[in-house]
Amino acid sequence: MLTYVKEVFDSFSSRVILVLAIVLIAGFQYMFWYSEGGYYDHQRLMQQIQQQSDVNQELKERNRILGAEVYDLKNGAEAIEEHARLDLGLIKPHETFVQMSTISTQYQSTYVDPEGKKDLRNNEDEDSPDLH
Description:
Structural class: mainly alpha
Strand content: under 5%
Distance between the termini: 99 Å
Largest sheet: none
Shape: elongated
């Protein structure tokens, strides 16, 4: 078998054909992986399509919510009243307005004397030995 291969590739034309075949295979492989429309280009485009599909899903959900809100505003007085209460501070007659504070119990004021003499949060005197 090995002698047959040597006999086939002894001639110049068979060597040229072998080199041409190797160059063509390498060229086709390069085109498959790296050219425009090749494997890597295809993978990048598929990733972009997936990202755009995710964005489109989020926008569809937002549009669905906005559509429901528009429908409520057109057809129901409750949605209009809710917006008036939240955005404009609507209080009906004979209602009591109660505002809840969101400040936690661990809140410490950070008031500083405008004259810059000392921080009023600290109960230490200016003459204490720790300050000098």
